Structures are given as structure tokens and as C-alpha cells.
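re the bet — no i am not wrong, look at it urself. input seq straight from the record:
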Amino acid sequence: MKTKAAILRAVHQPFEIVELDLDGPKEGEVLIKYVAAGLCHSDEHLRHGDIVPRFPIVAGHEGAGIIEEVGPGVTRLKPGDHVICSFLPVCGACRWCSSGKTNICDWGATILDGCMPDGSYRFHLDGEDLGAMCMIGTFAERATVRQESLIKVADDVPLDKAVLIGCGVPTGFGSAVYAAETEVGDTIAIYGVGGIGVNAVQGAALAGAANVVAIDPLANKREMAEQVGATHSCATAEEAHELIQQLTHGVGADKAIVTVGIVDAEVTTNAFHAIRKGGTVVVTGLADPTKNTIELPGALLTLFEKRIQGSLFGSGDPYKDIPRLVNMYQSGQLKLDELITNTYTLDDVNKGYEDLLNGVNIRGVIIHDPNS
């Protein structure tokens, strides 16, 4: 069949709208019609070269849609099911899945190649194979994906809002709840409160933190952070450091979470100095993996027993956390609607990322068929 998609051909090139050939589902695979796709910074990392995938690639890794067809051996899903994508597949059998670390499943090794676990591809253009970002490629109207990348939700869940639960929400929420292990009464500093950081704010607040300090140069992002749980906000790290010292009587923050768009040594150093003895810095944001972006005084790391903790998917479990977060949204505990600043058509994907880079959006969402 044919499908419309936004692809990246190379670093520093814009997203290109093309018509692709799409193979139908094989063993363990399903055909999904996407309803919505989130505009996450990670796809912009591909375009800018912070992370380099196998080009060309169908972009998009935050999505939600409806199953149209299932292949042989599919037991988890049926046509008509509403689903949210997990940008990390969960094979359920590797060393990491079997020990409860599904967020670092071995199948994640191929998500930047965009191929199936067996090395094959489902998107094609003029005889060339195209990968699907994170094995799902949500900037396509339709895709063929593994059933292990999808989590079924109730038909009354609004997919144009719940789409955020595929990446930004669990990554931010889990960074605070799981990776940082926020406890009641904690003081939490969050550096960068865009689509990921604003959900770290929600996670920290829901976990019972007494002080949640949101740090971002953009006033609109600080204002949104305060709407969803930040007790304080600051425009600069220096301002935040002084405030944290006041709030904690000179002790320091219990945890700091780094969710800026591009991590560098400056922000990680600021976070390290903001935390107390025995405190933790959680690094969730991304940067060029070939560059060193953390530079710390080793003596203080040792003498004060501070920790640096990386976090992927918020150190959570897609199969546990996506349904849990959907329930929290439906009960009113978790804010999603408020986070969506603008919606776009697939044709406007470059405008959406222009808005992201200019700080206009907390979160932008592509609606694949605005008339549906």
C-alpha cells in the first residue's frame, strides 16, 4: 500500500513530505493508522546531527492510533483497538526485560536504524529501504510495527491528547518518580521545563515534593510549570541556586533533574552544585553521544557522595506506566490538555519544529486527519 510520511534524508535538511510504499504486517506485526504524533525534540536531534540515525528515515516516535490489520501470531491486539506507541519496544525475553529493566530492552539497539529486530524494513521509496524512527515512524499516516511497541487503551481515551504518554510524559514523570526517587518533603530542581521537564515537574509534585524549582529562561515555560506543580521558578541557574539555598537553609536540593533540550557541561555542573551531600543528579536530556557533556569536580563527588544517574524513558516500564498514566489523566491527576500549545497537519511538520526551537510550544502535536 501507499502512505504519506515525513522523512529525513540527511543531517541539516528539513523534513520532506513523500509518498512511500508500505509492506503489510508479517509475523507478530500490525498495521496502524496514526491519529496523532507528538513533536518531540529527539527528532530534531536527528535533523541537527546531535544523534545520527540511518538515513533516510521516517521520523516521529511519539504516536497514537488505531489498529487496522494484524499479522500472523499477533495475540495482544485486534483490528479496531486504540493504542499508544512506546518509543521503546519491549521484547519481554532479553536479560534486561526479564530483570525488570524493560526500558533498556535489547531491541532498543536498532531504534535509530529503524529496522525490525530481524533487520528488515517495511517502508520503501523508489526501491530504497527506509527505517522508522524507534521502529514506529509516527510521522507517517500508516505504519507496520511490532505488537511489542504498542499498548492498548480504552476507546474513550482521546488519542490526540494521550499521544503525549508515548514519550514526553513518562520520560519526565519517571525521571522524577523513578530515577530521582522523589520522596515526600524533598526539594527538587528541574533544569529545562519543555515537553519533558514540565512532566518531571508533575511527577515531583505528585510524589509529594515540598519544593519543586523549575528553571528555564522562557517565561511561558516557567508559567506552565507553575500551573502543573512547580512551587517556584527561576530564569537562570544562578537565581535557582540562591533560592534553593534559602529554601533548604544552606543544605541544597535533594535531587536535580536535567531535561534541557541539549545537555552540556554547564547545566550538569550547575545541577551538581545545587544538590546536597548524598543528593542525585538525573540526566534525562540528550546531546551528541560522541562528545563529553559532563565535567564535574571529582573530589566533591567522592567527599559528598553525590550521584549522577542517567534515565531513559524515565527509568520506567512502558507496559506498566503508559496505562497508569492514562488512568491518572482520566482521573484528573495528570495534566495533558494544558501542555498542548499548538496542533499541526503533517504538511506543517517543519513549522512545528520551528515553533519548538523558538520556544513557542510546551508541546506541539500533529493531527494526521483533522477531519476524522
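see?? The longest strand covers residues 29-39. told u. also The chain has eleven helices and 18 strands. so pay up
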